[in-house]
Amino acid sequence: MRDLKELRDEILNALQNAKPEEYESLKIKYLGRKGVITSVLRGLKDVPKEERKSIGMEANKLKKEIEDFFKLHSPEKGKTSSKKFTDYTLPGRKKNLGAFHPINRALDEIIDIFMRLGFSIEYGPEIESDYYNFEALNVPKHHPSRDMQDTFYIDGSDKLLRTHTSPVQIRTMEKSQPPIRMIAPGRCYRKDEIDPSHSPVFHQVEGLFVDRDVTFADLKGILSVFAREFFGPETKTRFTPSFFPFTEPSSEMYVSCVFCGGKGCNVCQHTGWLEVLGCGLVNPKVFEYVGYDRDKYNGFAFGLGVERFAMLKYGIDDMRLLFENNTEFLKGVIK
Ligand code: PHE
Question: Does residue 88 lie within any of the structural domains?
């Protein structure tokens, strides 16, 4: 009986001083199958008969006391209350909304406009052969335009990083027959120094339209509709003579300045016009390379720089902003 009183003091004392994370193991220690109380109760059979009843009652009382303690201080509650505390007065966490990159946004709009005009989408490899990037586009070896384009060549092979999306014209004509109406978006590479209007990696959208009786009027019509869809209904277009080996005649399309509407400002260098893309009627020599009958078919082609379109549309004055991954800038560009 005396031992039991000591045991009771000891246990209740331990429980009072225990930390919540210790409750679980104390519960096992006292009440578990091999626990202290359990073995006291088991030992009752060895106690002399006269004392058995009172010791038994005393041991059961202690057991009940311990159980009551754990009813109030459940080991589960101990665990959670010791580790988690929620301060409901704290301000909520801000969720950052994603935004489309201006290049992708412009690209999506360009693609959308040409899809509505009945063009399909083609893709070609960024690592190209000399044949598709130059040869089949009527740019012979040692032609000055190969220097002009300052190409990244891949050492020890005839492979290079494509300098424009025009090779996709050739790939598309090789695998299909006219009529063709396609655009080819993608990345291009040139050895240009990084500055406000140049980047060694940039994006183009190529366009190719081939059928019977295609004229320069078709080219002007489609590209003018495109310009008005992209820059707004007031946009005027103008076509000046130019040169590309794969088109004849070749031209550059200008749009009335999107900033001053044609009155003249710093962006258009007070001309009222902005040069936005290169184009022309497909050179019959290119048809010969892909095995099309040059007397039966004609067509037009164009190539535009997506960065330039994005910068003009969203009022960005430095191309580097498009590649620096400054999320504050990127979030603010397009509302
Ligand atoms: N490939 C030309 C360039 O990169 C653009 C172009 C494409 C011009 C198609 C005419 C026709 O400058």
Answer: no
Looking at the structure of the chain, the number of domains it has is 2
**Residue ranges with strand state E in the chain:** 120-121, 127-129, 159-161, 180-189, 201-211, 237-244, 247-256, 273-282, 298-305
Give the separation between CA 160 and CA 215, rounded to whole angstroms: 33
What is the C-alpha separation between 310 and 79, in angstroms, rounded? 56
User: For atom 10 of ligand 1, which residue has the closest CA?
Assistant: 279
Q: How confident is the model at residue 23 (pLDDT cuts 50, 70, 90)?
A: confident
Distance 75 CA to ligand 1 centre (A): 75
Quick one: pLDDT at residue 158? 87
Check whether residue 14 and residue 61 sit in a common domain.
Answer: yes
Q: Are residues 55 and 197 in the same domain?
A: no
Phi, psi dihedrals of residue 19, rounded to the nearest 5°: -85, 150
Residue located via tokens 């690592």: 127
Q: Is 219 in the pocket of ligand 1 (CB under 6 A)?
A: no
Which two tokens mark 329? 């800038």
244 lines ligand 1 (CB under 6 A): yes
Q: What is the pTM of this model?
A: 0.73
pLDDT at 260: 92
Which residue minimizes the CA distance to atom 7 of ligand 1?
A: 303
Residue 286 and residue 169 in contact, taking contact as beta carbons nearer than 8 Å? yes
Whether residue 300 contacts residue 281, with contact meaning beta carbons closer than 8 Å, is answered with yes
Domain carrying residue 317 = 102-333
Task: State the greatest distance between any 2 C-alpha atoms of the chain, in Å, as a whole number.
Answer: 126
Q: Do residue 135 and residue 281 come from a single domain?
A: yes
Pocket lining: 166 vs ligand 1, CB cutoff 6 Å: yes
> Omega of the bond prior to 249 within 30 degrees of 0, cis?
yes
**Would the CB of 167 count as within 6 Å of ligand 1?**
no
CATH code of the domain containing 240: 3.30.930.10
Would 59 be classed as within a structural domain?
yes
Are 66 and 106 contained in the same domain?
A: no
